[in-house]
Specification:
The chain contains five helices and 13 strands. It has 274 residues and is of the alpha/beta class. It folds into three domains: 45 residues; 112 residues, no CATH class; 52 residues. The strands form three sheets. Strands 1, 4, 7, 9, 10 and 12 form a six-stranded parallel β-sheet that branches. α1 packs antiparallel against α2 and α1 packs across α5. The two termini are 43 Å apart.
Amino acid sequence: MTIEGSPQGAAPDRPGGSPVRASEMRASDAERERIAEVLRDAVAEGRLDMEEFEERLDAAYKARTHAQLEPLVRDLPVPGAAPAVEPRPADATGLAARDGWDARIGGAPTSKMAVAVMGGFQRKGTWTAPRSFTAFALMGGGEIDLREARFEGREIVIRCFAFMGGIEVIVPPDLETHVSGIGIMGGFDHRGSADGDPTGPRVTVTGLAMFGGVSVERKLRKEEQKRLKAERRREKEARREELRAERRARRAELEERHAERQAERRARRHDLGH
């Protein structure tokens, strides 16, 4: 650990002309107090026991040079700045909540079909889903993400056919979705069926899965995920601050005990001297 306040650049010369090494420089009261602060944090965090803390603290206040101070904290972490709190996004409610579903309904569809044969396909982002969309996967896989999509109309039908492959349909939690497909020697997951915002479109997922699978999952929009992540970070920072306050209180208690022990030692030495 480098002691703050140590000289930078060229070291001063001794009277005889030879330079003085930084480790030989005399330590100031402020530098001794900074080392003591690191030691107090260490004992409050459980890195040092009380006996080690007292030994090092005594040595810190008795130190005369940087060379005597630095070994006292060489095996301890250097205190860092508090982590920055991520600012709350100006708009973290998602497209549907911000503009309403009406703003996302209408327009020419981006595509009406997707095919994956020993490969894959994706429909995601701000694409426009048609009233009728057909997806076919043969020994491949596909992803249809409607979280940020626009919709050609209020009734959307997605037909999925998976043969020895898989298709995943992702919808936001507030989108009304009904699943009615069939699985033969495969799986057509109906757990994604749920009512949603009545002002939004209605999506029906149907089709056939043979030796393959079709899943419908409800996931938060990316903006909502970012908002929740920022909230969790703020909660963690608040918890860290609580822990810091607890450590400060514990440190104050330890310092008080240390002062009492020092007073007892001085009293015993005084008694022995008489």
